[in-house]
Known about the structure:
Elements (H helix, E strand, L loop, with lengths): L11 H11 L4 H13 L1 H19 L10 H8 L14 H24 L8 E7 L2 E9 L4 E6 L9 E7 L5 E6 L6 E4 L2 H4 L7 E7 L12 E6 L1 E2 L1
Amino acid sequence: MSDVHDHSHFSGDELLAAEYALGVLAGQDRAAAERRIARDRAFAAMVAAWEQRLAPWAADITDVAPPPDMWDRIAAELPAQPPQRAGFWNSLAFWRGFAIVGALAAACLVVVLYSGGLTQQPPLTATVRSGDRPLFVATIDAKRRTISVVPAAFIPDPTRIPELWLIGEDKTPRALGPLSADRTVVIALPPTLAGDAKANAVLAVTLEPPDVPVVKPTPPVIGQGILTNL
Length: 230
């Protein structure tokens, strides 16, 4: 697998094909890639090549069957649900939270893939939470100076836009850019802020009015998380 350790020479199309093969594209981004596969033979070949290249990773994973009584034990541990509310397994919040674990793992895999392996600076990640509810998961690629933000259980406000803030050692919030409730957003870190994007820095989210320059956060802060090394 040494051929996937260095991709600095790959084009943007190659990297997009890799993201599609890894399954980390979602929503409009994935739909656009699928339309391109249907009409662009060269891009379709790139995707097929990446799927073939990554196939041995999946082949190395051994299936492990859960104990026969596992689901019964899980159900027995769950708190009783009121009759008028949806059950645990039908809960949107549960499945959004469960999906974010996979999204975080995929995002981390892409960062390792792009940055040239585990010998490079480890990626930073933060789960932006409101209480116990994960709103977004952010992963910083220090080499590319980008931050990828995946929505989790964030519920959009029809009148305001979620804005991401970076809070470094000086405790001053600095705006990074708007987020989305239904797709991954990749934000370029300005060189002046790259030094603040390190372990123990804080990512916070506020709701801001649209079409208005963002100068300082509008209270309240709806969620925050601490950046940590994976």
